[in-house]
Here is the input.
Amino acid sequence: DQQVKQNSPSLSVQEGRISILNCDYTNSMFDYFLWYKKYPAEGPTFLISISSIKDKNEDGRFTVFLNKSAKHLSLHIVPSQPGDSAVYFCAAIPANAGGTSYGKLTFGQGTILTVHP
Amino acid sequence: DTEVTQTPKHLVMGMTNKKSLKCEQHMGHRAMYWYKQKAKKPPELMFVYSYEKLSINESVPSRFSPECPNSSLLNLHLHALQPEDSALYLCASSQVGLAWDTQYFGPGTRLTVL
Here is the structure.
């Protein structure tokens, strides 16, 4: 049962254009969402996060949008650069009634982003 | 500094061997994690330590034995592994382990079980 889904295994974008990576989730207990980037032979690198009380969070070229009613989030990268080529993982954490969940990250399958010069 | 280090980088072991993976962070984080990642799959949580106590064990087989000797170190002891345990083992840390703490990952140990 995949609770976090990234339905596009890969995405190819021209340098300078916008990259949009999508993620859907099924668990309504998820309260906090993160995007990680991963290069081969390296661990995931944190990019940006969003709490369920917000619908948008921006950090430089990266913006994450959250649509709670649709259980959907997306990561926008503008402008895309060749160095952005990597695997992007969406991840989610549930919060229990006490507000703690000991960081039980659930990852999506990942989307391979390729940015062409 | 958001560095989590892991040793060794690569490990090859037989099914009867005993080996250990090490993870270290000096960010003052009090929560540390072990994840397992198989090829073309997302990372899957194995264990969570919070304030040096085991908080979560995701039903991991007993041939994997975690240990947190102090707040900076996390070990994963391996014994009698199976070939299907071959994977990338990732360590992560976060401030205290709350839902909104960002987890910072190490580069991983690539384990091959023969």
